[in-house]
Amino acid sequence: MANSVSYEYLQAIQGVPGGIATLDPNGEIPTTQLPDSAVSPFKGEYATEALLIAAYPTANLADYAYVYETTSFWFWNAGLLDSVGEPAPAWVNQEIEETDYNALDAVEKSMVPYLVIPDVVTP
């Protein structure tokens, strides 16, 4: 039978780095208790940008998701700055058609590493 010291010790190391993992209500280890290498950067598929942002108001570098509304992948960009130069990380639709990309100025082009998609030419 465990004594109170060992019980208190076990309680203290539950859910902490280097301790004992706990289980969520579904019987799974919460992703917050897993190492980064074990958690996929793909955050799922969402009908709209708003649903993606609601599900993940913040994210990590390399996180991405698919948004059906724009039929494109969105990426978490932690390097964005607001109009006064303060950090403003956000989800970004980095897929852009070539014509739209060419219309951006140099500053806009440097803010986001865009995935340029060739314009569709209809015969």
Q: Indicate the proportion of strand residues.
A: 15-25%
Radius of gyration from the CA trace? 21 Å
Q: Helix coverage percent of residues?
A: 10-25%
- Name the average pLDDT: 84
What general outline do the C-alpha atoms trace?
elongated
Secondary-structure element order, as H and E?
HEHEEEEHHE
Query: Counting H and I runs of at least 4 residues, what is the number of helices?
Result: 4
Question: What count of structural domains?
Answer: 2
Strand order, largest beta sheet: 1-2-3-4
Low-confidence stretches: none
Say how many strands there are. 6
Structural class: alpha/beta
N-to-C span:
81 Å
Could you give a short account of the major beta sheet? 4 strands, mixed
Quaternary organisation: single chain
Characterise the protein shown here.
The protein is of the alpha/beta class and 123 residues long. It has helices spanning 4-12, 49-55, 98-103, 106-111; strands at 42-46, 64-67, 72-77, 90-93, 95-97, 115-117. It has two domains: 1-39, no CATH class; 40-118, no CATH class. It contains four helices and six strands. Strands 1-2-3-4 form a four-stranded mixed sheet, with helices on one face. Strand 1 (42-46), helix 2 (49-55) and strand 2 form a beta-alpha-beta unit. The longest helix has 9 residues, at 4-12. The protein starts with a helix and ends in a 6-residue tail after the last strand. The mean pLDDT is 84.
